[in-house]
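User: Show me sequence and structure for the first protein, then do the same for the second.

Assistant: Starting with the first protein.
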Amino acid sequence: MKLKYIKPDMDKIITSYEKLLTDLNKAKTIDKQLNIIEKINEIRDDFFSMEWLSCINYFLNVTDKYFIEQEAFFAKNKPIMENLKLKYYQALLASPFKEELKEKIGNKVFQIADLEVRLLSNETNEQVASEKKLTNKYSDLTTSIKVNFDNQEMSLTKLNKYIVSDDQKVRIDANNIKKEALLVKEQEIDKILSDLIEVRTSLAHKLGFNSYTEVGYIKMRRLGYDVNDITKFRQNIAKYVVPFVLKLKEKQRQELGVEKLKYYDNPILFKDGNPVPLGDSKFLVNQALKMYKKISPEIYNTFKMMVDKELMDLDIKPNKFNIGITTYIPKYQVPIFISNFNNTSYDVCVLIHEFGHSFQLFSSRHLKYYENWWPTFDTCEIHSQGMELLTLPYMNYFFDKPQKYVYEKLFTTFSDFCFQCLVDEFQHEIYDHPNWTNFERKKCWQKLDKIYRPWMDYSDNEYLNNGNGYQLISHIFQNPFYYIDYALSNSVALQLYLLSLDNVNKGWDKYIQLCKLGGKYTFLEIINKNNLKSPFDDNYFKEIVEKFNDYLNK
C-alpha cells in the first residue's frame, strides 16, 4: 500500500470542528450552512482516511510498533470525533433550513442523523476507547496463533488450505491441530468476549438503553425495519432454507461416499475435492483483468486502476490479520482492500467480493458526504455478493472445471444463510443476557447450531462440540450485529443473478446502477427503486428455494 499516512493533529481538528459547529448553529442563510457543512465534512473525511489507513496497515502487520501506537492514538481520539459528529448531526436536525438542506445534501443524511444522535454522550468515551483496545487485543491474539503442520510453522489462515483438502485424513489431522491450538486459547478468547459484552452493555446503559442490542441496531443504521423484521427473516430461513440445505447435505454425503457427514467433511462438496484455482494471486489478478475487460469497460478500468496503484494486498504474510476487508480513502478518492489467499476457491471468491465493494465505492465517489457514498452494511454487501454471482458465467478464467465452482458458490450461498442467522441470533442472545457465563453462551451456541445447521456433527472435536464455534468469527468481536447483513444483501444479489440468467445485460446494467447510487438511499428504498422483492416478505425464501431447487438437486 503506497497511500501516505499522516497522523491527525487533534488539537487543530477539535478547535476547527468546534468553531464550525458554532458557526453552523448561528448561520442565517442556507448557503452559509452549506459552506460550513462542506468544511466539516472535509475534516471528517481526512480523519476517517487516516483512521482507516492506520487500521489497514495494522492489519497488514499486527506487530508493527508504529501502527500499534497509531491504533492506540485512534482508540483514544475516536470517541472525541464520534461526539463531534453527533453534535454536527444535532445541528443539522435543529437547522431552520432543514427541509431545504434535505434537497441539497440528501434525506438519508438526516435519517442517519436522527438515528445516531441518540448515541450522543460525553460519558461513554471510556467505553468506546476500551472497546477499541479489546477488539485489537482479539486481532493480536488470533493472529499470533501458530501451528506446526506439514513440516512447517503456519498461521491458522494458512492451515485452512489443508482443512479443505480432498484427502479426508489430511482434513482430520489439520482440524485436530487447529483444535489443540484453540483449546489453549479458549479461555483468553472468552475473556475478551466477556469484557466486550460488559463494556458494550455499560455503554448502552449510560446512553439510556436497556441492552446493547438497541445500540447495535443504531450503529448498523437499521432504517425502515427493526428487530421484529429480522426475527421474522431468520424464522423464514429456518422454515424454508434449512430443510433445503439438509437435502443438499444428504446429496453431499452420498457424493463423498461417507456413512455420516462429519464437521471435517462439511466444506467438501466433491469426492475429488473442491475446485482449486489455476494459479497464484498474480495469475488470478491477471485473469480478473481479462474477465472484466469482457464484461464492462467501466468495471475493467476500475479494477486496472486498483492494480496499477497497488491498492490490493492479497497474500498471507507473517503477522497479517486473517481478514478480507475493503474501505474507501476519501482523501485520495480510492478504495483499498486486503485479503489472505490460501490457494483454495476462497481466493477467487474474495478477490471478486472485495472488488465488488471497491467498484461501488469508486462508482459513487461523486456523491458528496460520507452518508451518501458509503451505504449501510445491509446495502453494501449487495455490491460484493452481486459481483460474485454475476461473474459466475466467467469462472473458466480461473478454474479448469468452472461448473464445480458455480455449484459450490450457489450451494454455499444457501448454507451461509443458515450460518449467518445462527451468528445473528447468538449475538441477540448474548447481549440480551449480558450476565451469562461463558458456559451459558456456549450452551446457547450449541442450541442455535442445532436449529440452523442440524447436519453438523462435532462428536470427534471437543473444542467445537463444547460450543466454541463462535470464537474465530471476527465480526462477533469487532462488528457486532453485522453478520445478518450478508444474508439480507445476498437475498437481493440472488435476484440480480436470476435477472442476469434471463438477460445478462440487464443484470449487469442494474448492478452498475445500484453501485452508482452508493448509499444515497436506504436498503428498502434501493429494493423498491429497482423493482426488486423485499426479503422480509413471508414467501420470499419459499419462492427462492423453489427456483434453485431443480438446479442444485439435479
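Switching to the second protein now.
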Amino acid sequence: MLAYHKINPINAQVGIYLRVSLEDGDRQESNSINNQRKLIYEYLKQNNFKHYSEFIDDGATGTNFEREGFKKLLEEIESGNINTVITKDVSRIGRNYVKTGFYLEDYFVSKGVRYISVLDAIDTYSEVIGNELLPFRAILNDMYSKDISLKQKSSLMERKKRGKYIACYAPYGYKKNDKMVGKLNIDEEAAKIVKRIFVLFLQGNGTTAIARLLTEEKIPTPAMHLNMNTDKDSMLYAIWKPNTIKRILRNKTYLGYMIQNKEKTLSHKNHTRVILQEKDYIVIPNHHLPIIKKEDFEKVNEMLDSKKRALGKQKEQTILHELIYCEECGKRLARKDIEGKIYYYCPTRTVFHLCNNKNYLPYDSIEKNIFKYLAKYLKKYSNRKVLEKKYIEEYAKNKTRMEEYKNAFAKYSKELTKINNKLDILYYDKLNHVISSNMYKKYASTQKEERKQLEEKINTINKLMKQEKELISELKCNKKSVEKCIDKFYDLDHVNTATIKELVEKISIGKNRDFHIKFKFNSCY
C-alpha cells in the first residue's frame, strides 16, 4: 500500500523523468522523449505545477537501474531538491518489477516523495484507483520486458545462424561491409599486422617477444585501431600484450570462419555475461575471405599446444604462486625456471620497461621468509586469552560508539521534525495572511539554516553508523565465532598450504625486496 504525501503543486519541486530504449521495445513514436515531455508538460500546466527539472535517459534499458539520468534524480532527492517525481507511465521508472516496486513503494515513501504516473492514473497525493493497480502494472512491465528480450534473442540467434555478423565491431583484421549488412571485408592495414604476427611466431618468436616488438615499433593495438576510448591517456593502452597475440594466433576468424554466440547474458534483468562452451558456438565456414593459410594456422596452433603441454609437465605450481604481487605496479609476479631453480620477477618491468622493480627473487627465499613470519605471527596470536581479550575490548568499543550514534541520531531527527513542522505552520500562516511575506522570509530563513545544519549532522552520523556496522560485522558480534577462529589455529606448530589459503589474501614484494602481507581476517576478526 502506498503512503500519501501532503505535497501539493504549490510547494512541489518536480523531477520529470524521461526514458526510452529500443532494447525494451519502445519503438512507438508515443514513447519518444519529445512525446513524453509534451504529455507531462501539458499535465504540469493543467495542474498548476511551477517548479520542475528534467532527468533523461535516452537509450537506457528499464531492466537496469544503473542509468545516469535516474541516478542524478536520486541524488537530487537525497539532497532535498526534489519532492515530487512525474513520469509518463510506470514503465519509464523501470521494467524490473522488484526494483521498480522498491523505488515506488519503499524508497519514495521513506523520502516523502510524491509520485505521479500520468497515463496510469497513479498519484500518491490522493487516493485514486491507479494506486491500487501499481504492483500489477510493475509485474506486467517486467513480463513485457522479458517477452521483448526473448524475441530479440530469438531474432539475433536466427540472424547468426543465417551467417549475419551482428557484433558492434569487426574482428581485428576485418571491417564491416558498408553495402551488405552482416558481411565482413578485409582491413588491409590491420591484416598486414595479423599476417606478420603469424610469420614472427613461425620464425620462433614467442608471444612476449612479438608483443614487445610491436610495442617498440608503436604499431596501434587492436583497440587503438578501432579508434575506441580515444580520450584514454594510459600508457598501457598503447601496449601490445602477450595474451592479445595469443588470442590472434588462436582465432579461427582468420581462416574465413564466422564464430559467434561465444557468450550470453544471464537474463533480461541481469546483464552479467557468461562464457559458453565451444559446442554452443555458431560457426559458419567460408563466411569471408581468409587472411591466414590453413596450413600456417594449424602449424602455429600445434606449436602453441606443444608449448602448453611442455609447461604443464615442467612446472608444478608453488604454494605462493597465486599470491605474490609487485608492490610497485600491482601486477602479479611471473615465474621463470632457471637450471632447476624457480625465480619470480615483475613482467611489467621485463616486457614493457614500465616498472622499477628489477629483482629476480629465488622462490625458496620468498617461501622461507613468508613462512617464518607467519609462524611467528601465529605463535603471538594463538594465545586464547589474548584473542578473547582483544575481542571483548573491540566489541565493547563498537557497542558503546553505536549506542552514542543512535542516541544522537534520535535526538537530531526529533529536532528536525520539529523544525519541519514549524516551517509548515509558518507557510500556512503566510497563505492565510496570519503573517506577512517579509515575516515569513525572516523566520523561515532561520529555521531553514538550522534544518540544513541538522541534516548535515544526521548525514555524518549515518556514515559513522554505517562504518560501525561494518566493523561489528567483521567482529561478528558473536563470541562463538571468535572461539571457532581461535580453535582453528590454536597450538599450530607449522605453516602449511591450508594455513596459507586460510590466512593470506595477498603478498606484495617491493623493489627493495621488502614484503607486505594482506591477511584474510574478516572471517575471524
